[in-house]
Design a protein that fits this description.
two-stranded antiparallel ribbon; 17 strands; single chain; Hydrophobic Seed Protein; alpha+beta
């Protein structure tokens, strides 16, 4: 055991309480894993894992009684969890694990701290702080995790072939940690022998559930630079298992000396642009989310990254390979890729076991609309075009604009600067039109019930035609967005159809 004393990392009173209760129960307890790692990285962490040489559930219940906190017990996993003064503490008994070839579910037996550290995925996650009174705060680091942390290295405690074959999800986790922990000041890399092992063991991905893979991908997507992870997934061959449609974006084709943009690299650049822009907007508190509370829509300031916005960035050009054409006059075109891409989203979500609810529809909407603001940049920005964009995007207009701005990429800095400047004009126009016409959450002033009562008619196609004419007149700026103007317009259109109000 190391004699290193980690002053300040265990100041929270819960650590002293756990130490005291563990001593009274005659068991040894240690803080292990992510909390220890994040202490050395200077990152805040409110999740604490306690490993116990004994019953983690019994210690959790005793601590819960001491601090008067409810304890949630998960007997199937041998874990228990409680919350205390803003932090979440999970307790588990030390264990050793063995695996069968055809399953990622381990055979678990009681073990020592050393056994527990051996089963950990990476050296930087196997470090522990002692909570024993005699060496409180001592670092237990049998695999040199502190050294690997300083060097920015992702390495397995055991032979990587054993680690990754036992639980293939660790291959994706290695990539996720390399992505999450990398900063502009320090890049985390997976050691070469571990990368080679991932390539050798990639076929083991077939035993994993899609849900577990997506959990890792979602964590990867909300990092400051998610492209790191997707490039590593590609380099190791895992991307073919995770999202083959993204792999299909790779490569450049040339005809008559003309080549198209490398769409895989472009997609990852857009993804990073979205991540940077969203985090800046969160810091400035300029992004809003709309949630329903007791049936009423409430506006809230966004405080965390929206993983579905990141998915929209990742998938915005997903249908380009299917729509790629070469025109001798125009060069390479991808006409309709946004429409085809939007049509693909439900199938992609279904294949990945992702939700098919409003989250999927949000991604589908952003993919289908992602070219619209760009079209406004290159053409005259009319009030009518802006109204229709606001109508179609609704509350997602800010996220759509963020995605589209991030989609402006080119090796020509003058072109990028010009497009960004024009984009600011579109944003200004959006604000002006929204303030004047209130289109974002447009509701047709004319309802079907009103039309039926006014003309004493039964449900029929005419009602839909009249409502559509009113909607288009408002969006095109022919009439203002009010019931009075809409009613006059609708009566005039009805008269043209030979329909008159019943006196």
């Amino acid at each position: 055991m190391s004699a290193t004393i980690t002053q300040g990392y265990l100041d929270h009173e819960i650590f002293g309480i756990v130490s005291e209760v563990a001593a009274s129960k005659g068991v040894r307890a240690f803080v292990i894993g992510g909390y220890v790692r994040d202490c050395f990285l200077g990152r805040p962490s409110k999740d604490i894992d306690i490993v116990v040489e004994g019953s983690g559930i019994e210690l959790a219940e005793a601590v819960g009684e001491k601090v008067r906190s409810h304890v949630s017990v998960f007997k199937n996993f041998g874990t228990a969890m409680l919350r205390f003064k803003g932090i979440e503490i999970e307790f588990v008994g030390a264990r050793k694990e063995s695996y069968r070839r055809d399953s990622r579910k381990p055979i678990v037996e009681d073990g020592t701290l050393e056994d527990d550290q051996l089963r950990r995925d990476f050296t930087i996650n196997a470090m522990a702080f002692s909570l024993q009174k005699e060496d409180f705060g001592a670092l237990v680091d049998p695999f040199g995790g502190i050294r690997d942390l300083a060097a920015g290295i992702i390495r397995t405690p055991l032979d990587p072939d054993t680690t990754y074959s036992d639980d293939p999800l660790r291959m994706v986790r290695a990539i996720r940690f390399a992505t999450k922990l990398s900063t502009p000041e320090q890049t985390f890399t997976i050691v070469p022998e571990s990368l080679e092992s991932i390539r050798r063991n990639k076929d083991r991905m077939s035993i994993l559930s899609k849900e577990r893979i997506i959990e890792e991908l979602n964590k990867m997507l909300v990092t400051p630079k998610p492209s790191i992870g997707f490039r590593l997934l590609d380099e190791t061959g895992l991307l073919e298992y995770v999202l083959p449609q993204l792999s299909n974006l790779k490569g450049v084709e040339m005809v008559e000396g003309k080549a198209h943009k490398e769409n895989f690299s472009h997609t990852l650049e857009v993804l990073d642009n979205v991540a940077a822009a969203e985090m800046a907007a969160i810091k400035e508190q300029t992004l809003k989310d709309f949630v329903f509370v007791d049936g009423v829509e409430v506006e809230k300031v966004r405080t965390e990254p929206n993983v579905w916005l990141r998915w929209a960035a990742l998938l915005h050009d997903i249908a380009k390979p299917a729509t790629k054409r070469y025109d001798p006059a125009l060069g390479w075109t991808f006409h309709g890729h946004e429409i085809v891409g939007a049509r693909w989203i439900p199938k992609i979500f279904q294949s990945l076991k992702m939700p098919l609810n409003e989250k999927m529809k949000y991604v589908q909407k952003l993919v289908s609309l992602h070219l619209r603001p760009i079209a406004l940049v290159t053409e005259e920005v009319t009030d009518s075009a802006v109204r229709r964009l606001l109508f179609d995007a609704g509350n997602d207009i800010d996220d759509l604009m963020l995605l589209c701005n991030a989609d402006i990429t080119s090796k020509n800095p003058r072109k990028v600067a010009r497009l960004h400047a024009n984009f600011e004009l579109v944003k200004t126009k959006l604000v002006e039109v929204e303030a004047k016409d209130a289109i974002r959450n447009f509701k047709n002033p004319i309802t079907g019930d009103y039309v039926m009562r006014l003309f004493a008619i039964e449900p029929c196609n005419i009602i839909g035609q009249l409502k559509e004419q009113v909607k288009n007149a408002i969006l095109d700026g022919e009439i203002e967005n009010s019931f009075e103007a809409a009613d006059l317009y609708m009566r005039a259109k009805a008269a043209e159809m030979g329909l008159f109000p019943v006196e």
